[in-house]
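Hi,

I'm pasting everything inline rather than attaching a file, because the server keeps stripping attachments. The sequence lines come first, and each chain or strand is labelled.
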Amino acid sequence: ETGVTQSPTHLIKTRGQQVTLRCSSQSGHNTVSWYQQALGQGPQFIFQYYREEENGRGNFPPRFSGLQFPNYSSELNVNALELDDSALYLCASSFFYNEQFFGPGTRLTVL
Amino acid sequence: AQKVTQAQTEISVVEKEDVTLDCVYETRDTTYYLFWYKQPPSGELVFLIRRNSFDEQNEISGRYSWNFQKSTSSFNFTITASQVVDSAVYFCALSVGGDSNYQLIWGAGTKLIIKP
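And the predicted assembly:
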């Protein structure tokens, strides 16, 4: 059974650029959630996708957007990057509303 | 409003000592779930336990045990005979609304250091 994978591992961007992060769900899972974790803090919920539609959103601006594909993989897109967007971005997959299993994360640095 | 508080920012103990990590939550919902996750230095969050609001039974899994008390809104985590490999940041989280997945609300985490 393959776990949750994320790419890339690390990414460096400059202010104003756009970034796309990718996540592959664990086999058998159909729901994907994205979280932002700033250094030294707990994760913050960005949004969740189920059946290729957004199924809930945290307190993040519209420049954070996402997609879920028919194979349940997902993308997180962030436009007009700001310095405060520097964080670890975590993807979690689950089967409906069961326990979430997390990927290793993507470390984004915005300069 | 929902909130999770982990008052202990960092705990340092010597190997083989027992250690308890505190978690206090706030919610007005009667149906909710509580979680503990472990985040080692590699960064990947590892699921440890889920408990629903109707099940106050304590749980033991090897050296890990959890004490859920609705009267004090606490869900504490104890590691018995700690080992160096237990060193990590531990997060307590809350999910409300009758399901266990939607919008996890996280505490700030407790960094646990186990010294040899």
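The longest strand of chain B covers residues 88-96.

If the labels don't parse on your end, tell me and I'll reformat.
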